[in-house]
Amino acid sequence: MPVNILLTFIIGSALAWILIKITRTPPHLQGVFIGCCSAGNLGNLPLIIVPALCEESDSPFGESSVCSTYGEAYATLSMAVGAVYIWTYVYPIMSIYANRSTINDSTIITISSGETSDSYTEALVPSQDHPSCDDYPIQAQLPHTRSSDSFQNEMIHCFKILAAKLNLKKVFAPSTIAAIVGFIIGIASPIRKILIGDSAPLRVIDTSVSLLGEAAIPCMTLILGANLLGGLKRSRVGVLLVIGVIAVRFIFLPLLGIVIVKVAHHFGLIGSSSLYQFVLLLQYALPPAMNIGTITQLFETNMSECSVIMLWTYVVAAFSLTLWITFYMWLVA
Fold first, then answer.
1. Per-residue pLDDT tens for 60-93?
2. Topologically, how does it sit relative to the membrane (predicted)?
3. CA neighbor of 316 nearest in space, from 258, 257, 260, 248
């Protein structure tokens, strides 16, 4: 499942890059476009859809109690892995495009204001007090005589720059930390036995967290509705951009997902469980993730544009998800 979710992100961003070149998307909207195409709502939607399908009397996934247990586990794992990828994959990409648009906007403002001074031209011409680089030919030989110590220092400097670009404080968002803690509890058997199970001494923690989690699902849905309300406002998003996101998320990605899951099943990379295959397929047909709106709010750019894209993609998702879920259930039955 982690590999499958990573493929949804990579393929979505690749398709977004192709459509950016075709539609000539403005630079300030490219980051939002890539984010909406690459990151799907792997959180609350699978947690709502999969258990609801298991409760159906004619469900192809077997007994409802067993199906609900496994379905909730698959949906929760999907949410945890998706949260990690959003903040480690999508966030840096949107950060790069946000910084580019900010630099371009500041450059345009500076040029349009006409604020020029002699100091800018003087810095381009070497003076007698400040010789040019041509006066020091020995500098051209420095890369060839670099020692191992200087190489190590440069590598450390590169890692520091990379860490600054990634902004680890944002990467380790609360959802990412929660996913890591969940993985640790699930993998470490002693911790799991203390917290999970009817005979666990600290089962009250597990029960409390479960109650909060069940209440969080409708709360997240309400927050999503509030975010979509901003899509009714005017913005600079063109019709082609919205159609492009809809085409990537609801046409190209689901079709490619069928090919990937079927090929993986043919080569024995995934088991024969119809429920597991259904969850893998569902991950390709979901609308954009809610965290994309959160990221735009962090950068304070393109918030209204993101709301417009979210509004129309979720309107279309009401119909496309129904069709794809019906087809997936027939496909894996």
1. 887 888 888 888 888 888 888 888 888 888 888 8
2. Multi-pass membrane protein
3. 248
